[in-house]
Amino acid sequence: MSPVSRKRKPAKKKSGVSDERRQLLKTVLADAQDALAERDPVEVELVASAILGDFWRPSDEGRDVVLPLIDDAARRPSPAARALLRMLQHLALTEEQRGRAEAAADAFSAMPEPPWDLGDLTVTGCWQQADVYGDGATLLLCAERAGHAHGLVADVELSGGGLGDVYLTDHVDDLVDSMRAGEEASEVLVTEQIPLARARRILEDAVAVNDSAAALLPDVIAEDPLTPLRALVAARLRAMPPAEPPAEPPTFTEEEREELVRAFLAEADGVRDDRWFTDCVRFVVDYGCDDDFGRPLRVGPGKFDLLIEDVLNTEGVPKEFLATLPEVLPPWGRWAGERSGLRPAAIDRLLAELDEIIEEFRDLLAEEDADFDHETGGAAPIALRRE
To answer: Are 89 and 101 in contact (CB under 8 A)?
Structure first.
C-alpha cells in the first residue's frame, strides 16, 4: 500500500463563485470515479483524506468548502457522486459534514452503492516505541476492517512538538517485530502496548500542535506530512475510546526550585559556586518546571535542543550566561539523569549527543562574534543562523 495518496491541488479560482464550485465538483467527482475502481477501502480513504487535506485550513472564518460541495454533489446523481458522498460520510472532519453527506448518499437509492464499505472499522490496539528520555515516540495504531489488518504509524515529539512522519502500513506484524528488534539492539528504546485512551490523548495533543503551527505559519500546511492524512487520522481517533483526561503538570514553589539548585550544586561533579553558574542552573530548573510540563529532572537530547533553541531566540542574553550554560548542561544531565532513574548507558548516550548540541551552540556564538558589526554595533540574531 502506498503510504500517501497522490497529490492534488485545489481548483484555481475562476471569474464567478458558481464556476469555481462547478470546477471543484468536477475535479473531486473525477477522483471519486477513480475510487470506484478500488477494492481496498483503505486506498479509498487515502483518496478522500487527500481531497479534504486540500481544503483544510486552520481557521476558515466561517467559510466551509465541504458543505457546499456536498450540496452540489447531491444535485448530480451518479455513481461517482454517491461514492464521493460515502467517502465524505466517513472522512469529513465535522459531524455536520458527515451527517449531510450520509443523508445525501442515502437519497441516491437508484444508484448502486460503491464496491467498498468504509464503515465497520475497529482500532484493535496500539504499540508504542519511545525513547527512555521522554523526547519522542513512534505509535502504531492497529486497525481491522472485514478481516483485513492495517496500521497507522505516527512519529510524535512528546514534549509538545507535534506529529512528524505519518503513514499507513499493511505489514503490522512485521513492523511490531521490527520495533521489538530495535528495542533489543538499543539501550534507549522501549517497546510496549499502551491503552487506546492514552494513545488517543497523545495523538490528539500532537495534532493540535500541528494545527497551531499551521495557524501561525500557513506555508507549512503543504509541507506537513499530516495534511493529506489529517482526515484519515481523525477518523481513526473517532473509532477509539475517549482520550484520557489531559495530565495536570505539577507546580513548583520558589523554595522547591531553589532546593533543586542547592542539591545540584552540593551533589554534582563539575560545578562551581559563582553567580553565572548558579543563574544558569536556575534557568535549567525553571525551564523544566515551566516549559516541560513540570518535569525539571527530565533530561534528553530533544529537551536540551529545545532549551538551547529557547536561549537562541531570546534577545539580550548576557554573554557571561551564554558562555556558562554549556558548562552547566553536562553535569546537570548526568546528575538529573541519575536522580530520575536513567541507566548509565542511557546517560552516556545523552552526554554524547549533548556534546554535539553544545558544539553547535558554541559555533553559533563564535560566528556571531566574528560577524559583529563594529560600525553599527550589532549582528544578525543567533537564531537566524541556526539551521
So the answer is: yes
